[in-house]
Every structure is written in C-alpha cells, then in structure tokens.
Design brief:
The chain has about 220 residues and is an alpha/beta fold. It has one domain: Phosphoglycerate mutase-like (Rossmann fold, 3-Layer(aba) Sandwich), CATH 3.40.50.1240. It is built from eight helices and six strands. The protein has a six-stranded mixed β-sheet with strand order 3-2-4-1-5-6, sandwiched between helices. β2, α3 and β3 form a beta-alpha-beta unit. α6 crosses α7. It is globular.
C-alpha cells in the first residue's frame, strides 16, 4: 500500500522531433530534459520518499538520478515500468504515422490495438498495474514511493485505478517531467494530483488556445 509519485522522464530529442522512441536503446535526455530532471529533484527534495523505482531505459534512469542523489537513495530498475513496446513503430515519425488508417484505431479504440510487431495496449496496462501492485505490497498506506516511467503507461495505470475505460485513457495528459500522485490502498484508490509540471510554460501551452479564441471571436 503506498502513495505513488508517477513521474514521466524529461525531454529527449525524440520528443522534440515527435518520433516514437519506444524501447530504442541509448536515447538520452537533451539539455532541457536534464534541467527538468534537476527541477524534479528540487521540487521533491523535502518529500519523505521511501524508495525510487524506474523503467530501465536511459531516459528514465537519467531523470531519476538527480532525485536519488539528493535523497541518498538508490534507483531500482523495474522492467514493469518500461515504455510500451511499439514494435515496427519505434523510431518512426508521429506525423507520418498519423497518415495511416491504423492510427485511428490506436486513438479511438486502443483497448483493441496491438502495435505491429509489438505490445498490445491492454498488455501494457496490465504490466504497469502488476508492477505497482508488487511495489504496493511492500509499503504502508502513507509511504511515498517514486516511480519513473513513460507517458502512455502512466496514463493507462491511472485510468485503471480510476476505473476509466481504457479506450478513454488518451483524454489524460502526461507531460515530460510531470508528476502524478496516486494513493492506492486495499480499500481503493484516489488520484491526488495529475500532470503537475515544475517546468510548465503557460505561454507555450496557451498559444493554440489563443488562436482558437481569436478564430471564434473574429467577426
């Protein structure tokens, strides 16, 4: 039983260039991502974190390391927290993939979708839940545990514990270097915080909103 801090890794060039990283090895944080990792460490420097778990990929381990160093804890690589196995989509441009008819399936009916040559969305969610349940049994209701993972796996595990249909998990947002808090006990689960981003830039987020408002109000 535990309070989980579900933390997405910092930015990489794959994120910046909108490419599917999947489980491609040797993808490291870029300069912005490294700063985001330091921001996370500073934000959580006084949190009573009992343990730090991480997906074994480089970008998640690098995001977890500053916090682990600050808190004098070890990072425990945990395969259950891995990114989705995207199979043939790994490394490909998201812009190009969006032109394929199959893209509609992963967006509208992800519960029925399996990445070509890779993992199904259902299997990914199950793997993440199993990982958190295994960790949960080692801690008390009030123990704070940090888990560094990836966007879609975090969305999917939040959807599970909230009872949200898997087909709707894409309605959740998990930004790079964001923190989501989930309290899971034998009696149920509660979302404490979603997508808190210490590096959040309102100007960058609000540009498309301003454009939409302008188009609506234009005479």
């Amino acid at each position: 039983m535990a309070i989980f801090l579900l933390i997405r890794h910092g930015e990489t060039d794959y994120n910046k260039k909108m490419r599917f990283p999947g489980r491609v090895p040797n993808i490291h944080l870029n300069a912005k991502g490294s700063q985001q990792a330091k921001n996370i460490a500073n934000t959580l420097s006084k949190a009573p974190i009992k343990a730090i778990f991480s997906s074994p990929l480089e970008r998640t381990l690098e995001t977890a390391e500053p916090l682990a160093t600050l808190l004098h804890l070890s990072v425990m690589p945990t395969p259950g927290l891995l990114e989705t196995d995207c199979g043939e989509w790994q490394g490909q441009s998201i812009r190009k993939l969006r032109r394929q008819k199959i893209w509609i399936s992963v967006q509208q009916h992800p519960s029925l979708f399996r990445f070509p040559g890779g993992e199904s969305v259902v299997d990914c969610q199950h793997r993440m839940v199993q990982a958190l349940e295994s960790i949960r049994c080692e801690y008390s209701d009030q123990d704070l545990v940090a888990c560094f993972s990836h966007a879609d796996p975090i969305k999917q595990v939040v959807a599970f514990y909230l009872g949200l249909p898997l087909d709707n998990y894409q309605r959740l947002s998990i930004d790079t270097a964001s923190i989501t808090a989930l309290h899971v006990t034998e009696g149920g689960s509660r979302l404490v915080m979603l997508n808190n981003n210490p590096s959040f830039n309102w100007d960058a987020f609000s540009i498309p909103i301003k454009s939409q408002v302008k188009s609506i109000t234009k005479p």
